[in-house]
Amino acid sequence: MRHIARNLGVARNTVTKQVKTAEENGLRRDRPLEPKDLESFVLKYFPQVNGGGEPSPEFMKLEQFRKQISEGLKENHASTVWQRLRDEQHLVISRPTFYRYVNQHLGKRVKAADVVVHRPEGTPGDEVQVDFGRLGRWEDPVTKNSYTVHGFVMTLPWSRHVFVRPVLKMDLVNWLTCHMEAFSFLGAVPRRVVLDNLKDGVIKPDLYDPQFNKAYRDLARHYGVLLDPCRVASPTQKPHVERSVPYVRDSFFRGRSFGSWEEIVQAAVRWCLEVAGTRIHRSTRQRPLEVYEAEEKAAMLALPAESWELWESLSAKVAPDAHCSVKKTMYSVPWKLIGSTLDVRVTQSTVQFLDGENVVKTHLRFDNSRRQTDHADLPPDRIAFFQRNPQWCQKKATSLGPAVAKAVTELLQENTLLRLRQVQGIIRMEETYGAARLNAACLRALDFGDPSYPTVKNILKKGLDCQPSSLAGAGSEHPGAFLRGPEAFATNVRESEGRAVH
Question: How many Cα atoms sit within 13 Å of 204 on the Cβ side?
Fold first, then answer.
């Protein structure tokens, strides 16, 4: 009886009733009829099989939607077509009756799904199964761009409650975000998540010691859930979500049009609650949402008080300029790590670099592809020019003496950027001659009205800073001659005369 019902696509009770009718009218297994006599027997006792007799009132109702049913069966399963007629056309017809109509009038047989593997149901709230599945193509009516839409599906084996989140990209961020949205949708957390060995979740598959993605492992630790990957290439270990994916594709997405991406996401939530959650599940014979609310939700873990901060786990190699590339933006790290490969923890606001378990650098996150450099990460002698800006030079000069400060101030009053290198050079001479001699040299250069780098350098080089200044306040016409010698003065005079003649 079971095999006959499966092959015909009808209820077992219907097969039993028809066999009983045949037996009551003389048909026996040990006395089979000839084909001609069998045809007469069927026409006499089962006229409805070959179109005889009056159609039932239920079939008359369905006949009005014959074209719609025929078109729907081209893209969807019969169960989905029946469900949409019930919800959208308010057609009161049982599913077995609808199946019989389809088999007899549209030539499409409906077969029950083959059982691949049987797993014990477990206990309420103990387990959820998750997977990504392809839903189909969607064309944005505004931009006219076409996208492949996938769905993150989470199924609870006990109640058969389903959560669906459409995505355009199957990456780590969406994988983690979908888990968070699923737990929020359920309002509780299961004790165990059964998943495939996809790279976003499992870095190294192993039956006894799988290596998980660090961010995914951190999410599981935050929610207090156990991650339980299936054996490699063994999707039958999570049959409930494997069966849910084609159901979601057929019932929710296929044959529908959506005006925007936001509409798709919102429609998925409504479908989970209003269609998938309220249907009579063919295995449990109960409504999944009602079972979840009544039996399963209370047995699950409570949501954490604080939400988990989404972050990605990446890796980056330190370049010779002591920078790492993270999502097309360069970030500096301590220069002694050049050539190393660091772990990177990327959140919505920060980028954190780790050498093993040690945090070596943290930056604010930028997505503008610009270089983010902390000069403290670079060798001091290689970045002196960038560090010694006018403000730094003025502060440093003040600490070296009043004459140095005055000389620096005068130099930076005009053409600041052009004279910045001279100021840096004057301050650097403190390393060779000391602050006292540098201050005396600047004082002598100020007396001559020329506190430039060459003047201060010649004073220190010739030891003139150790001699008392005799020109303080004197407005010498050619002060540079006293510092560079009479030859320089003669050269300056000839250059001046030449310019005048020209």
Answer: 5
Domain boundary among 105, 137, 162: 105
pLDDT tens-digit profile of 240-299? 899 999 999 999 999 999 999 999 999 999 999 999 999 999 888 999 999 999 999 999
Q: Quick check: is 270 in a domain?
A: yes
d(CA 187, CA 176): 17
For the range 80-83, what are the long-range contacts, defined as Cβ-Cβ under 8 Å and sequence gap of 24 or more?
Answer: 80/250, 80/251, 80/254, 83/251, 83/275, 83/279
Lowest mean pLDDT segment, chosen from 1-10, 78-87, 193-202 = 1-10
For 5-66, give the DSSP string. Answer: HHHHTS-HHHHHHHHHHHHHTT-BTTBPPPHHHHHHHHHHH-GGGGT-SPPPHHHHHHHTTH
Is residue 100 situated within a structural domain? yes
Q: Are 353 and 344 in contact (CB under 8 A)?
A: yes
CA atoms within 13 A on the CB side of 160: 20
pTM: 0.58
Query: Do 338 and 350 form a contact (C-beta atoms < 8 A)?
Result: no
**pLDDT tens digits along 142-176:** 999 999 999 999 999 999 999 999 999 999 999 99
> What whole-number distance in Å separates Cα of residue 464 and Cα of residue 460?
6
- Helices 12-24 and 35-45 sit at what angle, rounded to 10 degrees? 110
In a shared domain, residues 291 and 244: yes
